[in-house]
Amino acid sequence: MKSVIGMGNALTDILINLKNDEILDTFKLPRGSMNLVDSELQRQIDASVADAPHTLSLGGSASNTIRALARMGASTGYIGKVGRDETGDFFERTLNELQIAPTVFRGDEPSGRCVSLVSPDGERTMCTYLGAALEMRHTELTPEIFDGYEYFYIEGYLVQDHELISNAVRIAKERGLQVALDLASFNIVEENLGFLHDLVDRHVDILFANEQEAAAFTGEKNPLEALDKIARKCSIAVVKVGTRGAYVKYRGRVDHIGIMGNARRVDSTGAGDFYAAGFLFGLCRGLSMEQCGTIGSIAAGKVIEVVGTTFDEKVWEEIRRMVGDVETGNYIL
Ligand SMILES: Nc1ncnc2c1ncn2[C@@H]1O[C@H](COP(=O)(O)OP(=O)(O)OP(=O)(O)O)[C@@H](O)[C@H]1O
Ligand SMILES: [Mg+2]
């Protein structure tokens, strides 16, 4: 079976259950928002919730995708940068436990982390501190890192460093890997339009975009027209349209793949990340576009049923069983 190495902002997610919303008022954090914070604000927030119960998990868009791929049974690797601290140790240890081959660099800043403050009613307010993740440089990447993999997956959130992405993708292509990119967010697309077009034209084989990102990238509001435009630039174009599923265009043919209809949405965090994981898993197994999309929908449908992006082994067993059924043609959406 083929294998995937991912690269992204290496973040550790810290989920904190709040007794009340006082801290949100104190730090003027709008409920439900995502805030980029500096180390000082992060430290103050940490100090004021030090007594609240919390859990740690591997976070970051690409690392979510790689983690899901590993849990489905793919062989995987991950490239990222953390600090020389306990959070960084946690990140690297967790990759090892999941049998994800780590290429984890250590920087001078503290490890990047995303603190999710969960209000008593379930609303989540996020504070993201990128820290050492921002220190990763293209000069740290060597061709050997990519040896033995067939696909290279990158998250759009990395666009802060154009040189890093360009060089990583160039090395991966030289080593014969296919490159997959998720556009991450429409504002990222708008702010880096020229760079992203050039990258996709030259190096990207598989592009994942949601409806808004596809519109920002192509200027076409209609997802099918956006899909067409994207498909002229790369080999496999995937445009996700939320509860309406996704469109895939490959070799001139368009497939529409629906959603896992019985999913009970609790929190959509990770839907896109897990969709990419399922899709890439199908590609690794040499399956059809329809089967790849179906596995994407299954993985996404499962992650939206939980708060956060982790669930227990029982659910992974169920996913692996469903994926097996997709492969044998016994599961069709
Ligand atoms: N309510 C839902 N029920 C079932 N499946 C869903 C639902 N919402 C989304 N999905 C699945 O998740 C996939 C990806 O969702 P979406 O189109 O929102 O991507 P995204 O915006 O990239 O997600 P994210 O916000 O996680 O980055 C969809 O194509 C679909 O298969
Ligand atoms: Mg997304």
What is the fourth-level CATH superfamily? Ribokinase
Query: What's the pLDDT, averaged over the residues?
Result: 95
Indicate the CATH class: Alpha Beta
**Main β sheet profile:** 9 strands, mixed
Rg computed from alpha carbons, rounded to a whole number of angstroms? 19 Å
Strand arrangement in the largest pleated sheet: 6-5-1-9-10-11-12-13-14
Unreliable residue runs: none
CATH architecture assignment:
3-Layer(aba) Sandwich
Report the sheet-strand fraction.
Answer: 15-25%
Q: How many strand elements?
A: 14
GO molecular function, one term: kinase activity
Family: Belongs to the carbohydrate kinase PfkB family.
Protein name: Adenosine kinase
Pfam families: PfkB (PF00294)
What's the topology here?
Elements: E1 3-7, E2 11-17, H1 22-26, E3 34-36, H2 39-48, E4 54-59, H3 61-72, E5 75-83, H4 86-97, E6 100-107, E7 112-118, E8 124-129, E9 151-155, H5 162-174, E10 178-182, H6 186-191, H7 193-202, E11 206-210, H8 211-218, H9 223-231, E12 236-240, E13 246-250, E14 253-257, H10 271-284, H11 289-303, H12 313-328
Parallel strand pairs: 1-5, 1-9, 2-7, 3-8, 5-6, 9-10, 10-11, 11-12
Antiparallel strand pairs: 2-4, 7-8, 12-13, 13-14
The protein binds adenosine-5'-triphosphate and magnesium ion.
